[in-house]
Design goal:
about 0% strand, Substrate Binding Domain Of Dnak, Chain:A, Domain 2, about 250 residues
Length: about 250
């Protein structure tokens, strides 16, 4: 880094315009990722961080399936409603499994990376930025002390020029080391924007797969239920004719 001494009020700038733009973008990406993570978590029906069995037990669909199973057992298979509700209970249980697996995938492939980006990776780089700013202030202070001693006519001050020069050089070295590491991390972040954007594509793909699997469960269950329902149609017809006779 080339340093030009003008006067004591000079402030050393160490980041290029490109890096300053990346810094602004990082803060924006951090906020956007944080908000997306928060809202996506609120869409989940299961509990984050729990194993699959516990997660599925807590799903509303699982509770619905269990309630239907209990109702079907109470009504019995000889009852039309009992048959229908048992068949629906099985389908709802399969839908709960699909939902659980979907949410586990979201947590692993999307929520965890987003949280890592927003709460760990970017904050660590921004922490380095603050450290660099502090080191720059230390360097500017050391530079000012050296410059004042260098220009002073005071013998006592002049005697300190060499030691103050060493302090300034040491402070500058710390700035350079921190700046190099920060620059590398910031450019690395910028190079991975495509990877970060992919999280949102994965979200849509995961949702599409989930809906396809859920639809497959329903499309398998409905014909079976309709067949069972068809076997009971004569009962409906008998009841309908009975009602019509009563009204005549």
């Amino acid at each position: 880094m080339c340093v030009v001494f003008v006067h004591r009020a000079e402030k050393t700038e160490v980041l290029s315009d490109d890096l300053l733009q990346i810094e602004k973008r990082m803060e924006l990406v951090r906020q956007v990722s944080h908000n997306a993570h928060k809202k996506l978590v609120s869409c989940l029906q299961g509990q984050l961080g729990t194993d699959t069995e516990k997660r599925q037990k807590k799903l509303p669909l699982t509770a619905l399936s269990q309630a239907m199973q209990e109702g079907g057992s109470q009504l019995g298979d000889e009852s039309m409603i009992g048959k229908m509700i048992n068949a629906c209970a099985e389908a709802e249980g399969k839908l709960a499994t699909e939902l659980m697996q979907h949410e586990v995938l979201l947590e692993r492939d999307i929520l965890e990376p987003l949280n890592q980006l927003a709460e760990v990776d970017i904050p660590n780089i921004l922490k380095q930025r603050k450290q660099l700013a502090k080191l720059v202030l230390d360097y500017d202070s050391a530079k000012t002390r050296w410059y004042q001693a260098f220009k002073s006519n005071n013998p006592t001050m002049a005697a300190k020029v060499d030691s103050l020069k060493d302090e300034m050089d040491e402070a500058l070295n710390k700035v350079e080391i921190c700046k190099d590491q920060l620059s590398a991390d910031m450019y690395n972040f910028a190079s991975k924007e495509g990877e970060y954007a992919r999280y949102y594509v994965l979200l849509l793909q995961a949702q599409a797969d989930f809906h396809r699997q859920s639809l497959a469960v329903l499309e398998t269950a409905i014909p079976t239920i309709q067949i069972q329902q068809g076997s009971t149609v004569p009962l409906f017809e008998q009841y309908h004719r009975f009602v019509v006779v009563l009204k005549m």
